[in-house]
Amino acid sequence: MSVNLYDYRPAASLTAGNTLIGIASAVADIDAMTIAEANSSVMVQGATDAFSATTDVANQSRKMIGDKVASSKPGTRTYNMGDLTIMLGDPQAATNEVLDLLELDAELVFWIRPGLQADADSVAAVASGQKYVAIRAIVAAVDLRDISTSDGDEFAIVLKVSVVERTQLFGTIAAA
C-alpha cells in the first residue's frame, strides 16, 4: 500500500487590499449567489477596517461506565459576526447607500470575496465561479461610533447583527 503525501504550502495572499465586502438585501441561496444578486450589493471594503465571523461550538461528551476514555462530538453551533464599523461619510447627505439598507430587523447578506484586488478606482467584476463567504443576518442595532475630540475621528456607525445562517466555507457565484 502506498501513501501519497502532499506538502501544502500555498503562496501568501494578503487580506488588505485583496478583499471585497458586500452587503446585499436579497439573496435567495447564500451558497449559490447569482451575478445579479451580487451586483445589487453595496460594497463597503473601502469604508471599514475589519470584518470578523466566528463559530461557537458546544461539544457533547459521552462516557459510559464501561468506557475508559470519553469521546466527544460537536453539538450545537452558533455563528457570530463581529460588530462592523462602517464610515458614514457626510451625516447630512440626502442619500447614503449603506444607511438606506440598514433598518432594524432587516435581513441582509454580508459577503466577502477574498483574493480579489480592491482599489479606489475599481472593484473586481463579479464573475461566475468566484468563491465567497456569505452570512445572512438580521440587523439588531445600528449605533453611532463614539464621538470624541481625537484628531482624525470620522463619523461612523457600528452595526450589530444576529446571524441566521452562513456558507459552510465558500459559496460559488452562479451565472443565473
Compose a concise summary of this entry.
With 176 residues, this protein is mainly β. The chain has one domain.
List the defining traits of the structure above:
176 residues, mainly beta, seven-stranded antiparallel beta sheet, two-stranded antiparallel ribbon, 2 helices, 11 strands, TTP_Phage_16, Phage tail protein
Q: Could you describe the 3D structure shown?
A:
By secondary structure, the chain is mostly beta strands. It is 6% helix and 41% strand. It has one domain. The chain contains 2 helices and 11 strands; from the N terminus they run βαββββαββββββ. The strands form 3 sheets. Strands 1, 2, 5, 6, 9, 10 and 11 form a 7-stranded antiparallel beta sheet that branches. It has a two-stranded antiparallel ribbon with strand order 3-4. A hairpin with an 8-residue loop joins strand 3 and strand 4. The longest helix is centred in the N-terminal third of the chain and has 5 residues, at 35-39. The chain is globular. The mean pLDDT is 88.
